[in-house]
């Protein structure tokens, strides 16, 4: 295994894929920790806190990112000594939480802080397995299963965080939710209703057990989703996408730096946030140089509040990144189905997942630009193409398909696909006629409510447009009255630019006719005098519907606006705070921005939340067709003219030389 | 030429395409008029109004659509006699406007109505050429050109409608806007500024001529967009999309009925609105039958108001469908670049355009659905696929890429791509520093303002969900307080369904947290008791910014809401009215709905407007990278369970047997 990079293995597909050699490339300061670095971190920490007299658990280990100026200074002279490799480690040590910085070259713990706040770190797989184990051995639960006439060996449980609901004293607890299998492999569609189980992970015991009601178990029938077991009537058959010619990936990998078309960016992986795209820059053919666009971007938090306020459900308000880790739940991707032909697959550490990310060239069948002049017999059309980095995080039932897409036009698209299995609740009903009470969702199958919920994905977008010092500009479209008496028209709109001076000026809710939102470099102009910039093209902008004073919403106050802008601060990485499990909302983006810092002509970070409400429907059963949402960052007076004007039309291939 | 269908010719690509035989298929009542039918219509009308004593011009000729119940009754027994073929004809006859219905089998004019309103019909190419001709021969204009030191043979003019601005007496007039070539083939980027020309098409003379100012002519340099002439620095080179295997289109064409996967729909073409998709129905494997979804859909109007209120510009508020005709401006599509490999191209009449539409199977690289269960070693992933019908309407400078996309999940996506050339204004400025006045747009090149404008596309969506009688439901997400004292959580949201009783209840502006909007069949339920329905998933929902009392906005009052619902009425086809040129807004969707008719459990039509504001930028020069917007209709409790659960995974192809 190549030790230089955390992203290590380029795998072969059904079709042969160009094997990218990474042996000779240099390590990059933003590379994720390598397998051997992880081992070294463990060794250093274990020496620092010997396990013979400590109960120690590694809750999070990731790269301690060097300061931005250090990275940029190294980049300006990549032959120089790279900054020292450091790891950021979160430990549970004798039931207390520590934050450590471990220096790998010095082989030492250079900082050790005891965390005294209310939250708890991201769960480990062991934490989750342990509480499930507790439940499966809990006498009263076994009794409940027996009373229902069920077989304990067919029970599948999973743990769920419980949030915070105003109690002054809290400890580290998790709920356990159990489903029945017995005739299905779908672990989420036969909930064993009426039971509430809460486990204390510190004392390792069941702390709350309620068996309130015997609710009919939803049927196994119709819940299996495997092609190997489906029975008629079959759905339609479809053609496969045409394969790329052997060896054609379209991009280059130098270490973890991807080069494709006019783009270049660094790809890393983090257990908490999943993919991290850094140093995205685009080649400007006129200026004969790469120009900076995005220093670092990742999904900072993913908040999923369920909308059932009853005993067994009200606590289900999940923070997927902070509590579970999107990277922790990365799953292996399937060549040709999860990622198209020509994709290169990469493995990740420390989560041992093969093919956890893929990089591929995408041909959508769309048009990049065109114009016809029929009279002059001119027709120029360039087909659309892009490069995509994809990871899928299957946080138990839900599959989140997370895409970063770079386009030759200079646009970056952030796409989220939601699929997988709904979280459902067992009810006595088999027809809506029988329902006389609030059920907090839709009857999606017999005895099965698909519970209403939201998804809010908050992106950390550290844009550095042509340099660090940027400003955030709101371009308002203002209706004006025509003043010239000779003009019979009454109105028009024109734009007014407002530069956000402080964080308060940059809190935006996107409603009807929102302003255009730009990050510009106030120190750089095009030849025509426009400030170079990138514009946020928002996607689905659903706002939270919980009351602002409700506990989950206090913890998720970072979703109260669609957009926030903060001055760059290396420690402000996670919008929900560092310790999100059972947090009280005292360390969120909403709190940081209360300082109302200056953000004009500074190194700034934009935070954007894509939100959507999910009223479930029968089509979501038993596996949801992918619901896609996203947004875009679009160059706006960044280039002197269209960066794709001079794109050479592609040479089309032919199957002429193939035999079927 | 095959006489049975207006869409007649399946053309060959670079790669061989399956030749679809249409000879033996039966004509369909919704087929566009065939070439011979057009000839017959002309002959019948010419006999009715002999040209020796009439000045006659055919402004519009299209199918007079049979009543819906007649079509449906024929469909239930397709071997029966089809309804009589009739044409709807709009004539300018001796300077008056007539609406005729011509019966083709009876070879007679069955109805002839003199139109006495204020509007004028859709322009013909001859109308537009004639006024350009007038301008190019107008002495004062030739003098202006001479005074500017320009060569009249390098001047390219186009006509533009002038709207209505409150005058009581109006006649049929058009503006003429002229650009310079001399060193470029781009007809829109060297405006000859300062000149206003208005021509009277009835009297065939220039009615208004103003040469106000000598404004510097923007340079030719940088405006050419042809691959054959581009000079270094070149943009990046990209791979072509992999080709489909020879002959693989993926769908069947029976006459103009397209069958693909679980979908079936009828495709027609209209000079005014472009593509018309009718009778879209989806196969329900459980019910073993096709189920109705959409009776008829097309772009009813496309309103583009420019936001420059000065003398030469204030009148530029274009209604592309009603004034020009989206179909009239269809352009031939380029195989492999405009439409991907495997596309079938179709020619249209009466606008003689080869390859005006294409139909293709689309593989986006996205995932249709997936779920991983790592522990159980289950991974099921189905790649996304769809079928797309595409037409491009190049209305002078702008290219509108109009897509209808059908997905196996039951979703229909309506996508609009905006590309082509901006409409620009010449100004004395070469840098923003020099600008001290309002310029109504962005300096996108030297001496060139890309004028701010909007696009509002209003779709006519006649949904028939499982039958004619449908209702429109607003599903509001309402924040509620938790009442149970034992629950510490304070809030949640739940849904409240409101059925729109009348047209007033169905006027919707989509802002923050809009209701979910559904069309349901109140008479059909799933087995679980949910009403079968389809949901509108809105796209970009920009609202008009002109004041409601302004003349262009009165004419475009149909854009005042994003959504409207009306009872089906065959005559309510065009949201801006039948005669849009110089119209006064007395025949729009906004006026029709003032009747506030009942819409509950009726045959209803939904109208949806996709709007967007375009603040131009330098990247839009000289050709705009495609800006895509769209919306979706999504099955919601229409199926008993996911219609793609039982989709058989595709058989992947390999290039193994190819030589490069």
Structure description:
Two copies of one chain form a homodimer. The first copy, chain A, has 660 residues and is mainly beta. Chain A folds into three domains: 35-115, Nuclear Transport Factor 2, Chain: A (Roll); 125-225, Nuclear Transport Factor 2, Chain: A (Roll), CATH 3.10.450.40; 252-368 and 381-636, Beta-galactosidase, Chain A, domain 5. Chain A has seven helices and 32 strands. Chain A has a 19-stranded antiparallel β-sheet that branches. The longest helix of chain A is centred in the first third of the chain and has 14 residues, at 35-48. Residues 1-24 of chain A have low confidence and may be disordered. Chains A and B meet through strand 16, strand 17, strand 18, strand 19 and strand 21 of A and strand 16, strand 17, strand 18, strand 19 and strand 21 of B.
Supply database-style keywords.
homodimer, 660 residues, mainly beta, Nuclear Transport Factor 2, Chain: A, Beta-galactosidase, Chain A, domain 5, 3 domains, 19-stranded antiparallel sheet, four-stranded antiparallel sheet, 7 helices, globular, disordered N terminus
